[in-house]
Amino acid sequence: MSQSGSAPYEQGIKLILASSSPRRQELLKGMGLNFEIISSDADETVEESLSPREIVETLAVRKAEAVSVSLPVSYAPDRTVVIGSDTIVVLGGEVLGKPRDERDALRMLSALQGQTHEVFSGVACLSADRRNVSVSHRRTKVTMKAMDEQRILRYIGTGEPSDKAGAYAIQGIGATLIEGIEGDYFNVVGLPVSLLSEMLEPFGIRVI
Ligand SMILES: Cc1cn([C@H]2C[C@H](O)[C@@H](COP(=O)(O)OP(=O)(O)OP(=O)(O)O)O2)c(=O)[nH]c1=O
User: Fold this and answer.
1) Please, which residues bridge with residue 178 across strands?
2) Spatial separation of the C-alpha atoms in residues 188 and 25, rounded to whole Å
3) Per the structure, how many domains does the chain have?
4) C-alpha of residue 19 to centroid of ligand 1, in Å
5) Cβ-based neighbour number of residue 159 at 10 Å
6) Which residues contact ligand 1 via a Cβ below 6 A?
7) Does the global pTM surpass 0.90?
8) Any domain includes 181
9) By percentage, how much of the chain surpasses pLDDT 70?
């Protein structure tokens, strides 16, 4: 996937996305950057006392660190930057991650319908030697239309909710369930690209 002559390789830096999320891969591609994908197998359990911001930032760092420690020696640790990210949905203090099964998706969507919730995405950028670490997050408010159970079940039947925080995808059929948003749309999809571009600059990676 890496190519010479394209950012950030022209700057002599390798970029790695520590994510198996197709959404994050597409969004990073959309920034015009060349990168490699190495999925992280980091444990995603966190202490219940953490705030939403702390959860997404902790997990973003954990995912990036898990990949950085497993890199082969051919990656120059001071010239390799790893990106990790994590997204959660928060409704009235309750954190909603990815649904365990369809029943869990029904529970989540029944709670979210007709309400405004928040989506938090954390982003971590770190040099593979872990000398430079940058971590931040964005928060977006999303209002979902009121829906009856039949409509929710039909949406679950599309299969779209299964691997998405809060059991919906704003970028898919789920868009038709959304009344409005306040804040960064890309943050809801899983990667706040505008924030990420600012975070990459101190690592010598300029998007434009
Ligand atoms: C709210 C919402 C979430 N999502 C997705 C983004 C994330 O992929 C997922 C949240 O789960 P995450 O645990 O953040 O990410 P992941 O397991 O998919 O990928 P990885 O840990 O390897 O990076 O929910 C959407 O695609 N659309 C949405 O509207």
Assistant:
1) 144
2) 14
3) 1
4) 9
5) 10
6) 19-21, 23-24, 39-40, 63, 85-87, 89, 98, 119, 163-166, 168-171, 174, 188-190
7) yes
8) yes
9) 97
pLDDT below 50 — which residues of the chain? Answer: 1-4
Ligand 1 centroid distance, CA of 182 (Å):
19
Which CATH number does the domain housing residue 195 bear?
A: 3.90.950.10
Q: Are 16 and 83 contacting, i.e. CB atoms less than 8 angstroms apart? A: yes
43 an active-site residue? no
Complex prediction ipTM: 0.99
Q: Which helix (H) or strand (E) holds 190?
A: none
Nearest-angstrom CA–CA distance, 160 and 128: 34
Residue 1 within any structural domain of the chain: no
Marked catalytic residue, from 41, 43, 78, 86? 86
Nearest atom in ligand 1 to the alpha carbon of residue 119 is: 1
Alpha-helical runs (H) found in 142-204: 149-157, 185-189, 193-200
Range of the domain at 108: 9-203
In a domain, 2, yes or no: no
Residue 208 lies in a domain: no
Residue whose CA lies nearest to ligand 1 atom number 8? 21
Q: What does the alpha-carbon distance between residue 34 and residue 83 come to, in Å, rounded to a whole number?
A: 13
How many Å lie between the centroid of ligand 1 and the Cα of residue 165? 6
